[in-house]
Amino acid sequence: xxxxxxxxxxKIEENGFHGYIVGGFVRxxxxxxxxxxxxxxxxxxxxxxxxxxxxxxxxxEDYGSITVRAKSVRFEITTFRRELTYYNNRKPIEIEYIDDxxxxxxxxxxxxxxxxxxxxxxxxxxxxxxxxxxxxxxxTVGNSYxxxxxDTLRILRAIRFATSLDFTLSGEVEDAIKKxxxxxxxxxxxxxxxxxxxxxxxxxxxxxIHLLKALGLDQELELTRLDHVHNYDxxxxxxxxxEVEEHYPFTTNEKELMKKIRTVLPLxxxxxxxxxxYGLYVNSVAASQKGIDKKEVTRAYNDLAIHARSxxxxxxxxxxxxxxxxxxxxxxxxxxxxxxxxxxxxxxxxKEAILSYCKENxxxx
Length: 365
Ligand code: ATP
Ligand code: MG
Hints:
The protein is an alpha+beta fold. The protein has four domains: about 1-135, Beta Polymerase, domain 2 (2-Layer Sandwich); about 135-225, Hydrophobic Seed Protein, CATH 1.10.110.30; about 230-305, no CATH class; about 310-360, Serum Albumin, Chain A, Domain 1. It is built from 18 helices and eleven strands. It has helices at about 1-15, 25-30, 45-55, 100-105, 130-135, 145-150, 155-165, 170-180, 190-200, 205-215, 215-220, 235-240, 250-265, 270-290, 295-300, 315-325, 330-345, 350-360, and strands spanning about 20, 40, 55-60, 65-70, 75-80, 80-85, 90-95, 115, 125, 135-140, 170. The strands form three sheets. A seven-stranded mixed β-sheet has the order 3-4-5-2-1-8-9. A two-stranded antiparallel sheet has the order 6-7. Strands 10-11 form a two-stranded parallel sheet. A hairpin with a 5-residue loop joins β8 (about 115) and β9. The protein is elongated. The model has no long low-confidence stretch (mean pLDDT about 90). Adenosine-5'-triphosphate binds near residues 24, 108, 113, 151 and 154.
């Protein structure tokens, strides 16, 4: 990926412009972490980039950036810019393209995100990002209070980087977060969720939760039930415990899972019928929130006599012909009955046993 990115930079340079890999990729590279996206900053305009990369360029002109696909990796190429005015603490309403790398770096959030790499693979450190990476500290580029007031998403990014990289927040960043956190209510729930998801899926999630609470962000983000989360292995499980679907956006599928997790929470997750009806995943997540080892749940699930109706040792045709009956609503009851008995060990999952049970209980004439 690095080699492909450097080739893109060389191509930009060959066309008479300057281009640098910037931000997360360089930061992660110095930390020995593999990045999954590469951001490139350049003095070439989106039009120039389109002309240089032609078919590979997918414009995202609204944001003044172009995505270039090379070797199935997406490289986001953005023109140097300075954001001038902010509206509603979030969207810059005027963007001025400027021919100056340093100015572009100054608009960025944290010093660790200002490192650049040129076409030769040399790291440029114009705003002391390297020393902060070495010290493992999150420091804003310039005044923290101003940075967070301009764009409150940065508050959550600070927590996210402190969590995923296991860095500390500088004193100034912490103070500024406390002073600006009330502005988080203007940030969309989509943006909040995106950052929170990154915090919740980090291996170091406990630190993130600690920071959210210690800085009082839990209240501002309406995560008032954080203390109800007892296990952080599963992000849907975390959201299920937080019960914030009323505000935060989730897919229908996610909402259903969260509801099911909460439904089985007060139930016995090792109970065969609960396992059968709600499945392994939902029960594992609920069990882990109660401190029950997931392995126990998996074992109990694997031990179930049947996992679906189709696992019963008879087909409905066989039952109907044995009873000499036509299909009808009674089949639903019959199946519920069979599933219950087989799961609870009161009926063997064997053809003879099931058919004779059916005859005794569902024979009409
Ligand atoms: P990752 O890709 O690992 O999530 P990243 O630092 O690359 O982290 P991106 O969202 O990809 O984050 O942004 C790329 C770069 O753009 C950042 O490194 C930073 O320099 C800048 N940036 C992103 N979001 C902001 C923001 N809200 N305010 C200021 N600069 C930002
Ligand atoms: Mg990135």
